[in-house]
Amino acid sequence: MAGWIHMVTARTPTNIAVIKYWGKRDESLILPVNDSISVTLDPEHLCTTTTVAVSPGFDQDRMWLNGKEISLSGGRYQNCLREIRARAEDFEDNERGIKIAKQDWQKLRVHIASYNNFPTAAGLASSAAGFACLVFALAKLMNAKEDPSQLSAIARQGSGSACRSLYGGFVKWIMGKEENGSDSLAVQLVDENHWDDLVIIIAVVSSRQKETSSTTGMRDTVETSMLLQHRAKVEVVPKRIVKMEEAIQNHDFSSFAQLTCSDSNQFHAVCLDTCPPIFYMNDTSHRIISCIEKWNRSEESPQVAYTFDAGPNAVLIARNRKTAALLLQRMLYFFPPSADTDMSSYVLGDKSILKDAGIQGINDVDALPPPPEMKDKVPAQRNGGEVSYFICTRPGRGPLLLSEADESLALLDHSTGLPK
Amino acid sequence: MAEWIHTVTARTPTNIAVIKYWGKRDESLILPVNDSISVTLDPQHLCTTTTVAVSPSFDQDRMWLNGKEISLSGGRYQNCLREIRARGEDFENKEKGIKIAKQDWQKLRVHVASYNNFPTAAGLASSAAGLACLVFALAKLMNAKEDASQLSAIARQGSGSACRSLYGGFVKWIMGKEVNGSDSLAVQLADENHWDDLVIIIAVVSSRQKETSSTTGMRDTVETSILLQHRAREVVPKRIVKMEEAIRNRNFSLFAQLACADSNQFHAVCLDTCPPIFYMNDTSHRIISCIEKWNRFEESPQVAYTFDAGPNAVLIARNRKTAALLLQRLLYFFPPSADTDMGSYVLGDKSILKDAGVEGINDVQALPPPPEIKDNVPAQRNGGEVSYFICTRPGRGPLLLSDESLALLDHSTGLPK
C-alpha cells in the first residue's frame, strides 16, 4: 500500500431515552416532533468502537460493521460523510510526513471499521452508538473544530437517537424550530457524575420475532395515530420535558421514576394506536412492569424506574446500589435462568452486583424467597428462559478518543487500512 | 310453601363493542365519557338465562348465579331492583289467584336465578348479559311498561355495557348530557337481519393471570391518562358518525378499519394509565398480526378484530366464505393441543368446520400455510395458545321464554332446581 495511512479510534456509549423520541416532522433531515431526554450508559459495559482511516491509497469509502462489509451508499451514511467533510480543516503530522489541506478531504477516501460489544439482536440501540461514533471519529480524523452539540446535529442525520450519544450523563435533544434543522441538536443537561448513585439493570428479553423498524414504525405512527399529535404538542411532552429536567437537576428520584415510566408507557400506547398497530413489548416485558409497579407501590416511594424502547428489553433504573441489589434479587426470583445456564453469563456488565445481591451460583437463585409485596400471591412455579441475560451498568461518560499510541485497540490494520 | 309463586324466565344476549366504552363521567350513575356502539351476539350460542320469581312467602331478595348464591347488597343490584320496583304496575292472573297492586311491589321480595352458558373466566362480558337479563326479566315480572330504551337506562346502572344488550343487531349507547343520566340509554341502529352476512369467530385465549377489573381500570384511566380525554372529545365522536354510516351501508371496509382502530386505541389508553393496564397478551398480538397481514394482502379488509378487557379476540368476517378461510388460518396458526378433540375446540355454530374442510385433527395438521405468509413460514406450529373458538353471528335481543322446563327456579319452592 503506497502512501501514508492516518487513523483514529474512538469509543462511544449508547443511550436510553427517558422522555421518548417517536415521530419526525422531517424524514430526510431527521427532525423530531418533540424534544427528548436520555441517560448515557457506561461505555465500559456497552459501547461502539470505531476506527476511521484515511489514505491516498484508498480508492473508495468502505465500511465494515462487526466484521462484515456494509454499503455506505444509503442516505444516512452519505449525510454524515458529507457534513463532516465540509467541516474538515488542515491537518499535519510532520513525523509521518502527512500534510492534508482542508479541501483535500473532499477527494480522500476513508475506511471505517466499527464494532459493538453487544449484539445487534439485543435491541440495545446499536445504531445510536454507531452513528455517534462514526461522526465523532471522523471529526477527529478530519480535524473538524465542531463542539459536541454541533457534531450531534450531524450525527442526528445518521440516526436521530445518535445525537444524544455525543455527551455523557443526561442529555436533551432539542427538537428545534428551523426547517433546515440547524437548531435541532443535543445539549448536556448534567454530566455522568451528577447523579452517580443510579444503577441500571437491563433485562435482555428473549424475542421470537423481528421487530418493526423504528424508522417505518414512527412514520406510520405520525401518519395514522390521532393520539400522537396530542402527545407531541403542548399538552404532554413539553410539560414532561420541563419536569424531567427539574427532577434530574434535583436528584428527585420519585419524579424521575414517575415521568420515565409514564413516558415509556405512552410511547408504547401511541405505537398501539398506529395502523397497523405496533407491539414492541411482550408478555415478559409486561411481567417485568407488573413486578416493578407492585414493588414501587408497596414502598413509600418508587424504588425503580422502567423504560422500554422499540423492543421487549427492559431498562430498569434503581435509585442506588442497595436498591439495585434488591431489584436483582426480584429479577432473579421472577426470571430465573434456564436449568443449564451459568450465572456469570446470565448477569453481564458490572457482575459485582451479584455479590451485593448475595448470589454466587444457581443454588442461591433457587433459594431466593418471594419478595414481601407478593406474599399473598406466590406463584406455584418459577419458569426460566424468558430473559436471555441481564446487564448491570450505570450512567456514563460521552465519546472518547482511544489513545493513538495504543494501536492494539484499532480495528483497522495500520499498514493495510483493512480490518484486522 | 303455601302461597302462589309467579315466575318469569328470560334469555338475553351478550354484546361486543366496536366503538368502545372506557371511562365514566359519573361513577354511581354509570354515565360514560363517550358514546359506544356494539353488535349483539346470537343468544343461541352465548346467553344468560334468568328466572325471576315473586311470592308473598319470600322474606328476602335472593339471587343465585350459575348455581351459587350471591349477595344482592351491592349498589348495582340495588339500583336495578329499586328502579324496576318503582315502575311496577298492577298484575293479575285469575287462574292462579294472583292479584298484585302496583304499590305491593315495594314490599314483595324476589328470587333470582341466573345462568351463563359460557364461563365467566372466558372474559366474554357475562355481566353485560346478566344485568340486562335481570332488568328485562324483572320488568316483565312486575308488569312494567317501559320500552327497551327505558329499560336500558336502568340496566346501565347495573353495568354500563349491559344497556346495549336490551336490543339485537347493532346498538348505540348514547352518552347523554343530563347530570341525572335520564338521557343516557341505548337505541337500536339496525336489527339482527340488517347485515346477516357477517360471521363472528371468537378466540378464547388461554390467560394465566387475573385481569384488572373494568371498573377499576377505567377509573384509573380517567384519572391518569391524558390521552383518554382527547380520545373521548376529539376521536370517538367522529368515529361514531362514521361507524353508523358503515353499518347502515353495510360498508365492511370502513367497518373493519374503524373497529380495529378503536380496539387498538382503547388498549392504547389502557397502556397510558398509571399503573399501565395490559389486557392483550402475546397470543392476542399474534392474532392481530395474522389478520393485519391477511387484510393487507387482499384488496380490502376481510376480517375486523376487536378485543375487550381481556385477551380474547372477537373476529368479524364479511361473510361465511371468508369466515371459513379465517377459521383455516386460525387453526393453522393456533392448532389444538395434541390431546384435544375438534368437537370441543370449535363451539357455537360448529358447521363452520365443514365449510373450512376440517373434520378432525388430521385436517388441521394438513392445512397449508396461507398465501400471505409464504415468505415467512414458521418452522413449527405450537398448540395450546387458544383454549377454544366459538363461531356465532349478530343476533336478536332479549326474549321471554315460555317453556317452564327452562325455568331455573322450581315453580313450587321458588328455589334453584
Automatic annotation (TrEMBL), chain A:
Q: Name one GO cellular component term.
A: peroxisome
Q: Which domain of life is it from?
A: Eukaryota
Q: Where in the cell is it found?
A: Peroxisome
- The answer to whether keyword DNA repair applies is no
Q: InterPro entries, alphabetically?
A: GHMP_kinase_C_sf (IPR036554), Mev_decarb (IPR005935), Mev_diP_decarb (IPR029765), MVD-like_N (IPR053859), Mvd1_C (IPR041431), Ribosomal_Su5_D2-typ_SF (IPR020568), Ribsml_uS5_D2-typ_fold_subgr (IPR014721)
The EC code for this enzyme is: 4.1.1.33
Q: Residues in domain Mvd1 C-terminal?
A: 200-400
Where's the Diphosphomevalonate decarboxylase-like N-terminal domain? 13-186
Kindly state which reaction or reactions the protein catalyses. Answer: (R)-5-diphosphomevalonate + ATP = isopentenyl diphosphate + ADP + phosphate + CO2
UniProt KW keywords: ATP-binding, Lipid biosynthesis, Lipid metabolism, Lyase, Nucleotide-binding, Peroxisome, Steroid biosynthesis, Steroid metabolism, Sterol biosynthesis, Sterol metabolism
Q: What task does this protein carry out?
A: Performs the first committed step in the biosynthesis of isoprene-containing compounds such as sterols and terpenoids.
How is this protein named in the record? Diphosphomevalonate decarboxylase
Q: Which organism is it from?
A: Trapa incisa
From TrEMBL, chain B:
Q: Which organism is it from?
A: Trapa incisa
Question: Where is this gene product found?
Answer: Peroxisome
SUPFAM superfamilies attached here?
GHMP Kinase, C-terminal domain, Ribosomal protein S5 domain 2-like
The record's GO molecular-function terms, alphabetically, read: ATP binding; diphosphomevalonate decarboxylase activity
Q: What is its main location?
A: other
Family, according to the entry, reads as follows: Belongs to the diphosphomevalonate decarboxylase family.
**Any Pfam family the entry gives:** MVD-like_N
One Gene Ontology biological process: isopentenyl diphosphate biosynthetic process, mevalonate pathway
Q: What's the protein name?
A: Diphosphomevalonate decarboxylase
The record's function comment reads:
Performs the first committed step in the biosynthesis of isoprene-containing compounds such as sterols and terpenoids.
The family database entries (PANTHER family) matched by this protein are listed as:
DIPHOSPHOMEVALONATE DECARBOXYLASE
- Group of enzyme by EC: lyase
